[in-house]
Amino acid sequence: AQSSCTTDLTCGREVKVISALNYHRIVPDLAQWKQLSLGQGTDFQPVARESKPYQFLDPTTGMAFARIPGACYRIEIASAEANPSPLPPEGADRICFKPFDFGIHEVTFEEYDRFAEATDREMPDDNGWGRGNRPVINVNLYDAQAFATWLSRKSRESYRLPTEVEWEHAARAGSLTRYPWGDDLGANRANCIGCGSRWDAEQTAPVASFAANGWGLHDMIGNVAEWTCSMRDPNPALSFENCDSPYESRRRVYRNGAWSDEPDRLDSNFRDWNAGIRQTDFVGFRLVRECDDCGSVPAMKVASQPTSTPATD
Fold it and tell me: Strand, helix or coil at 7?
């Protein structure tokens, strides 16, 4: 029902109940978590911005980053009657992150090649599809992290890979549906098997070949999957909003489907994983820019005040 959608991201779907013993290890699906506005005590549904999103341009490469609003997500925990195990400590049933800047498209060959030349690093193979403004492929997790470190030093900014929760939050852009634009795949909205684009099942498309989502991000669905800094099985000692150690050898999560995937792998909550050392022609990456001043630009407007009882901490 539309009324439930104004206050609950589950939008009528079953809320995932998490055992107190494994609540850190649940597969992230933000559409099944209640969302709280950052700094407020009531639930709300985010909506698309009314104007063009704020953008930051990296001084070294000219890469564009869109401002993504911060949020808190509450994970539903079973009641004491339904769950005899001790509940987690106060605050452990939610994650919060501040606004951040996110690349409006995947890192391209042009941008990555500049890094490779400057650091005498091997150039990744483009499979004969072309370089330039196509998303870089055949790069592993450590290649992506090295690029972020190099760019941070050159630009005097703070860049890194996203956590998978940040990635999904940005991909949804406030939507509650399978894809940012709705539950139907439609035609020529992305690059995948059967997406209706000229590149379907053949090769990558140049970045930003398709319309952006409500927060100004292109290709969050299809084209190439994207590395995150999150492990397949999250470390119970860390919360979802933190990156896992770059030295941890467990499999790393990538998000999004790719040009070679069926539509059922393009859902906003789709996740898969691979060894961090693997290089493939269907996984690339984009970066987060951390910033102390991100909260200074209004990034989200609440359409209306919720009618539900304010949530308790």
Answer: coil
Residue 258 tokens read as 């790719």
By three-state DSSP, how is residue 58 classified?
Answer: coil
Distance CA 88, CA 81 (A): 15
User: What is the C-alpha to C-alpha distance for residues 303 and 3, in angstroms, rounded to an integer?
Assistant: 13
Angle at which helices 141-155 and 109-118 cross, to 10°: 80
What amino acid is encoded at 271 in this protein? R
| Secondary structure (3-state) at 32 | helix
Whole-model pTM: value is 0.79
pLDDT at 297 over 90: no
| Cα distance between residue 9 and residue 175, in whole Å | 9
Cβ neighbours of residue 106 closer than 8 Å, sequence gap 6 or more? 135, 136, 207, 219, 223, 224, 226, 284, 285, 286
Taking alpha carbons only, the member of 174, 172, 279, 287 closest to residue 229 is 287
pLDDT band at 94 (very low <50, low <70, confident <90, very high): low
**Residues 6 or more apart from 94 whose CB is under 8 A from it?**
36, 72, 73, 74, 75
Q: What are residue 5's phi and psi, to 5 degrees?
A: -70, -20
Q: What is the spatial distance between Cα 112 and Cα 267, in angstroms, rounded to a whole number? A: 27
What is the strand order of the sheet 225-231 is part of? 271-274, 252-255, 225-231, 283-284
Tell me what the mean pLDDT of segment 204-215 comes to: 96
Dihedral of the alpha carbons of 302, 96, 242, 136, in degrees to the nearest 10: -10
Residue 46: predicted pLDDT: 46
3-state helix, strand, coil in the chain (%, to 5): 15, 15, 65
Q: What's the rounded Cα separation, in Å, for the pair 276 and 254? A: 10
